[in-house]
Amino acid sequence: MNEANPKLNSVTAGMAFSANVLVYVFVSFIISLIATGTGMGEDTDAYKYLSYLAAPMALMVGCALTIVFGNQKLRDVAPVKCDVKYYIIAALIIFGLLFAVSELNILTLQFLKLFGYTPREQSSYLPDLHGGLIVPALLVIAVLPAVMEEFLFRGIILSNTRASMGDVRAIFIVGFCFSLFHASPEQTVYQFICGCAFALLAVRSGSLLPCVLIHFINNALIIILYACGVTDVNGNLSIPMAADIALTVTAAVAFVAGMAWLILDKKPFAKGQKGGVKNFFITSSVGIAILAVMWILSFFIR
User: Fold this and answer.
1) Contact assessment for residue 276 and residue 165, using Cβ atoms and an 8 Å cutoff
2) Distance between CA 287 and CA 301 in Å, rounded?
3) Which of 99, 104, 98 is nearest to 216 (CA)?
4) From 110's CA, which of 16, 88, 136, 142 has a CA 20 to 30 Å away?
5) Each residue of 57-66: pLDDT tens digit?
6) Regarding predicted confidence, which is higher, 238 or 164?
7) Per residue in 195-226, is it b (16+ CB within 10 Å) or e — as a string?
8) How many CB atoms lie within 10 A of CB 74?
């Protein structure tokens, strides 16, 4: 990722975030109108697929607008080449996230329940996965989000924030935006850690591909394990307790090892410029405000 390009800056990153959020809200509104006009219920597969398509479709438009009007070059915001060792690190990180760090969702949910939050059943989010129907589910729920979300967060936003505020602050900014964009209270902490881990991987590897790969694996495994009956509706593994504990401990070690490998990389973290963080939050304030409202409303709208 090229920090020297003067067209990469936190103002563009903030505007990209707000623009993508606005497009996402608009696309979601259109989908709700279609659903209402056709009598499409929320429990139908058609509605679920349209809901999952809302974010990728919106990001396609929002990212295209950013590339064109922000004079962004694909080689600057979507580099692909990297050393093979980063794919090994990526494997360690996603293994740790899925089978150890994800346990934070349970703790977060228990905490939020103290304030009256009630989650939806996981099964209500997923379409029919029987037989060959798992293929379109993987495409819509795993492939498209992995490509488009990585292009926005670890591509456009990370590249532009790094140029203005340096690597470390950019990593946490991207983690914050990634978590907020999903507007899922029970997954807020987990998504923040995922966002930061993916951003650190992108910074160290200089490539989007390892991030796209593990993002896909994260989404795909959730679908496949549930379709195969390995996990229940709440995402809990249907395995003996001893095996579950051993898996969690092993995954935690893998995650720590992967993150340590990245942090201790010999390449120094780039330093930022004064005002980079402030400029980002000013231009991203519209998107942040909209998503914050959506996050709060999820406590009351089921």
Assistant:
1) yes
2) 20
3) 98
4) 142
5) 999 999 999 9
6) 164
7) bbbbbbbbbbbbbbbbbbbbbbbbbbbbbbbb
8) 11
Tell me how far apart the 2 most distant CA atoms of the chain are, in Å: 58
Please write the tens of the pLDDT for every residue from 19-51. 999 999 999 999 999 999 999 988 899 999 999
Q: Which residues of 18-35 are buried (b: 16+ CB within 10 A; e: fewer)?
A: bbbbebbbebbeebeeeb
How far is 216 from 171, CA to CA, in rounded Å? 20
Tokens describing residue 289 = 């405000």
Structure tokens given for 69 = 């009007």
Q: Where are the alpha helices (DSSP H) in the chain?
A: 10-38, 45-69, 74-77, 85-99, 104-113, 134-138, 144-150, 158-165, 167-182, 188-205, 209-227, 241-263, 276-297
2 pLDDT more than 90? no
- Distance (Å) of CA 177 to CA 1, 16, 152, 294: 20, 11, 10, 14
Report how far residue 144's alpha carbon sits from residue 141's, in angstroms, rounded to the nearest whole number.
7
